[in-house]
Amino acid sequence: xxxxxxxxxxxxxxxxxxxxxxxxxxxxxxxxxxxxxxxxxxxxxxxxxxxxxxxxxxxxxxxxxxxxxxxxxxxxxxxxxxxxxxxxxxxxxxxxxxxxxxxxxxxxxxxxxxxxxxxxxxxxxxxxxxxxxxxxxxxxxxxxxxxxxxxxxxxxxxxxxxxxxxxxxxxxxxxxxxxxxxxxxxxxxxxxxxxxxxxxxxxxxxxxxxxxxxxxxxxxxxxxxxxxxxxxxxxxxxxxxxxxxxxxxxxxxxxxxxxxxxxxxxxxxxxxxxxxxxx
Length: 279
Known about the structure:
- By secondary structure, the protein is an alpha/beta fold.
- The protein has one domain (8-173, 235-276): TIM Barrel, CATH 3.20.20.30.
- 44% of the residues lie in helices and 15% in strands.
- The strands form two sheets. Strands 1, 2, 3, 4, 5, 6, 9, 10 and 11 form a nine-stranded parallel beta sheet that branches. It has a two-stranded parallel sheet with strand order 7-8.
- Helix 2 (44-52) links the parallel strand 2 and strand 3 (57-60).
- The protein is globular.
- The chain starts with 7 loop residues before the first strand and ends with a helix.
- One of its GO terms (molecular function) is oxidoreductase activity, acting on paired donors, with incorporation or reduction of molecular oxygen.
- It comes from Pseudonocardia autotrophica.
């Protein structure tokens, strides 16, 4: 079994995804859509998106291990994989401690969850792991098809690739604002970074490992930090930023398009697809 998401994908919260949008994303040439926001274990949205499209890969980004037991998600995986072979990737992850009352033994919990997926015959090649730090990147290499880092930079992608080695999927997410004015682009992009991510220990720790300082992470993030985490400018400038991940070793990069008031993303996705040369 091989799931091939292509070079470019779209990350979008589950509440903003519909079968119609999935068809549009596929028609624009994107290889995958990632369902954000901890989708429930029935994975019904993933099945609906796959039913509506012909070749698009659908991935979860991510099913939360704390809220969705492996015993719940495994039957859903098998239902979907049988119906749409080689088109579904089960992304799973530990989430973050601030959202979970009992956040003890996170690493051991990941291992136990993957062990249970093994017992339930969910193949390693059909799943990916949300991974930022070294130990979990190692798990993604050894126990899954690869890693799906969130809120990262091409510098993280480069170090992750060095740790993962070759032939392991590396599919980072990167936020995107199509606006050539730095001030208004930051005003739109900063809230998507500030809350909740700059208040969460795992994301802060990862950014500190990358060389950012505590001061740069406080008060909504410095302009330099926001510029690093939210690509902005013309579609061509944004495409060049996404391609930095590929040059750093990513196999696939998924763009999270941020629009004013979370308006319909289709116009922006069309412009981005054209700049990426896939439309």
